[in-house]
Amino acid sequence: MRSRLFKPTLIWLQGVTCNGNTHSFLNLPYLPQLLARFEILYHPLLPCSQNLEEIARCRRGCDVLVFEGAFDPMMERAGVTLERLVAYYAEEAGHVIAAGSCASFGGIFKAAAPERNSGLAYAGEHPDGPLLGKAGKVINLSGCPVHPEWLGFALMNIAEGRPISVDALGRPTALYRHMAHDGCLRNEYFEWKVDAEQFGRKEGCLFYEHGCRGPLTHASCNRTLWNGVSSKMRVGTPCFGCTEPDFPRRNLFETKTNMSIPEEVPVGVSKRAYLTMTGIAKSFKIKRLEERLTDDD
Amino acid sequence: MMTKALIEHIEGEASLYFDTRGEKITWAEIAFPHFRGMERMLEGRKATDALVITPRVCGICGHAHLMATVRAIEAAYAQAGYPVELTRKARSIRELTLVLEMIQNHFKWLYLVILPELEKLGVGGISPAPLKGAYAAAQATKILALFAGQWPHSSYMIPGGVTCDPTHLERIQAAGLLDELIGFFEKETAGVGLDALLSFASCREFNPLQSDLGRLEKGLIATEMHKKGMAYDRFVVLGEHGFTVRARLKHTRPMKADPSQVSTEPAVCRDETSHARNVRYGKHFYEVGPLARSISADTALIKNMHRRYKDSVYTRVMARAYETAVLLQHAKTLLAELELSEPSYVPPAPLERISAEGEGIVEAPRGPLMHRMRLERGIVAEYGIITPTQWNLGSSVMSDPAPAQKAMVGAADIAEATFVFRSFDVCSVCTTH
Predict the structure, then answer these.
(1) Which of A241, A260, B20, B102 is spaced 20 to 30 A from B29 at the CA atom?
(2) Rounded CA gap, A283 and B270, in Å?
(3) Closest Cα of chain A to B11: distance in Å?
(4) Taking CA atoms, what residue in B is nearest to A240?
(5) CB of B369 within 8 A of CB of B380?
(6) Domain of residue A98, CATH code
(7) Residue B256 belongs to a domain with what CATH number?
């Protein structure tokens, strides 16, 4: 464990981005405490000791590089290409954090310009980014945007000198071993194959017809709630699988089905077994799951 | 001689090119270098996919983009002869979450941008506390997320209503959080109760305030911002909401506003490729944003400021800061009047039947946001976005400058001109999208 006196230096760079990860991070409840653990050399919105032009001169490295947005080698920040900026700071840094799905896999902005843009170490699920050779130091915090608590978790571990174990796609297992489905308030409907039928109701599961990717998406959105209070599924919006390399897929509000069974079944489940189980589950008629949950209306 | 200044700590970056005589600014051009191709990536996708993609245009006003998209899809439904039924409840929840996004924006702009920049101009006693802005913004997004699931980047508005089904539990939680946020605003930002602040009729009433808003007001006068940064004194409000009125205004005189009169052309910058566009109503540039909204809504205090100091930086900045109070009050009313017994969602006709054009207009934090789309059997054939910053921060020729250009000419030096620029609340990612 590092002493609390050691303050790692941090630079937050932006590639092709919407700034969503920056703004998501500002929602972190313990933001002031976290910032106090680092020496912020550069951040696009928060107080920092250097400006972008100074950073672009590439004279002094940092301990932690946070990168937000897709990587487009030719894009310039303060007149210097991302290719040069990322190569320089990643070389120096002990840790590189890809904040969000664009930086991790290319995300929305890879979808907008697939021939140019990628993530730092991956393009979609293929290890094919500029930091491929340094993939060991890249921590992928996918999500569109990154959940502030996930970024808080990674940065606090770095500040404390703790190792972070990652999955095959470079994502911390502590955060991405769960499925988005885990902790969903609609799980009982999922188990008994009761579909939501329509939007705007808290009853029913969104997996069967409404495009929800909860059982197929590695994310802990329903364990660590968004903004401390909620998640997409809690408000009846399907999970769009934004932490996975194939985000954004197409027809996001629909589930592709085969004989009224979702074509893709929950991760790790055999399709044949799932079909059998679905048949049995559907044969139950559970009155409680056919009624409204509250009498507010 | 052209002098370049890189402007950051906005949403992305912008380049300003100044012509100067001595230190004084005689001309300014604006370039936004980063382009991302959001409109093109929507083509060929199902219209509902736009509800997930367009919030990603902007990390700070994605919710406004979501609302513009859903309104555009619903307008296309109507044009195709399948009008979408929306309950009052769905409308109120949409408006409430939009208002909360505006509130977080204004807090961040005030604390993370304007107060620190004002201090850099040499005003003493500002003591900026940027993290106050992050704290207050996070409180606002927490309330928003109770209905929308998360912020940024939620997709809970859908044609026919909203996906959420809130109970009185969420309503009461939201009301508690909102009261806390109002308490913070009264104590830290305003230094006076919300009701008292909303009843202010003259700038003089700021004099006794020992608060961030009081320091802001004094700082703006100390830097003579009440005499600087005038643009055209012409305003447009296009979104239809409960907190303002759609209108086109010359000075404070309102006229009818017709969105079909809005047009765009590429922005001009001699020294750098800019991906921005200039937006005009008819043949003219107009200013948009909280100042426009306040005048259109007949807000007594802002009209008083405008009478004294016209459309100066002072009036523009104070209008945005003051709108936070107006919006907090509006959020409180919306929440109190929320009728939970109505349905959240009324299913519309199948999207595949819709071949039509639709336009969705929303007042985003910085002004009117317009989404236009053409659908062929529910698939996006064309998509166009016009953002508020394109209205204010276009870059045109010397004989016909865009509002921010006009406002910067005459500034004493580059530092002052960039403050004038920031008074419009610059968003680079929205400007280019």
Answers:
(1) B102
(2) 71
(3) 7
(4) B52
(5) no
(6) 3.40.50.700
(7) 1.10.645.10
CB-based contact A27 B130, cutoff 8 Å: no
**Placement of tokens 């996004």 in the chain:** B101
Q: Average pLDDT of B108-134? A: 95
The answer to whether the bond into B368 is cis (omega within 30° of 0) is no
Q: Inspect the interface and report whether the beta carbons of B147 and A52 lie closer than 8 Å.
A: no
For B204-240, the pLDDT digits (tens) are 999 999 999 999 999 999 999 999 999 999 999 999 9
On whether residue A116 sits in a domain, the answer given is yes
One domain, residues A164 and A22: yes
Is A236 found in the same domain as A105? no
Same domain membership, residue A30 and residue A117 = yes
The CB density around residue B413, as the number of other CB atoms within 10 Å, is: 13
Domain count for chain A, please give it.
2
> Which range marks the domain in which residue A70 is found?
9-175
Which residue segment(s) compose the domain that B198 sits in?
A: 2-342+349-431
Please indicate, yes or no, if residue A4 is contained in any of the structural domains: no
Cα distance from A180 to chain B (closest Cα, Å)?
13
Cβ–Cβ below 8 Å for B59 and A236: no
CA–CA dist A24, A255 (Å, integer): 28
The pair phi, psi for residue B258, each rounded to 5°, is: -120, 110
> Is the same domain home to A142 and A266?
no
Secondary structure of residue A255 in the 3-state scheme: coil
Task: Give the contacts of A276 (CB within 8 A, at least 6 positions apart).
Answer: none
CA B430/CA B419 separation, integer angstroms: 20
List of chain B residues whose C-beta atoms are within 8 Å of the C-beta of residue A237: 149, 154-156, 163-164
Beta bridge partners of B398: none
* A133, A197: one domain: no
Task: Check pLDDT > 90 for residue B2.
Answer: no
DSSP β-ladder status, B161-162 and B157-158: antiparallel
Q: What is the ipTM of this complex?
A: 0.96
Report the domain count for chain B: 1
Is residue A220 a contact partner of residue A176, using CB atoms and an 8 Å limit?
yes
CATH code for the domain of A262: 4.10.480.10
Asked whether residue A161 is assigned to any structural domain, the reply reads: yes
Beta-bridge partners for B31: B15
Q: Which of A19, A235, A251 is the closest to B156 by Cβ?
A: A235
Sheet with strand B234-237: strands edge to edge: B234-237, B247-250, B253-255
Angstrom CA distances, A188 to A273, B165, B185, stand at 19, 18, 42
The CA distances from residue B249 to B93, B296, B360, B363, in Å, are: 29, 7, 21, 16
Flag if A45 and B108 touch (Cβ within 8 Å).
yes
Q: Are A68 and A82 in contact (CB under 8 A)?
A: no
H/E stretch holding A262: strand A261-262
Q: Are A164 and A200 found together in one domain?
A: no
Average pLDDT over residues A59-68: 97
pLDDT for A3 = 57
Residue where a domain stops, chosen among A114, A142, A175: A175
A295 vs B254 pLDDT, higher one: B254
Q: Are residues A24 and A121 in the same domain?
A: yes
Domain stops at, among A147, A175, A203: A175
N residues, chain B: 433
A214 in the same domain as A70: no
β-strands B277-281, B262-266: how paired?
antiparallel
Residue A134 domain flag: yes
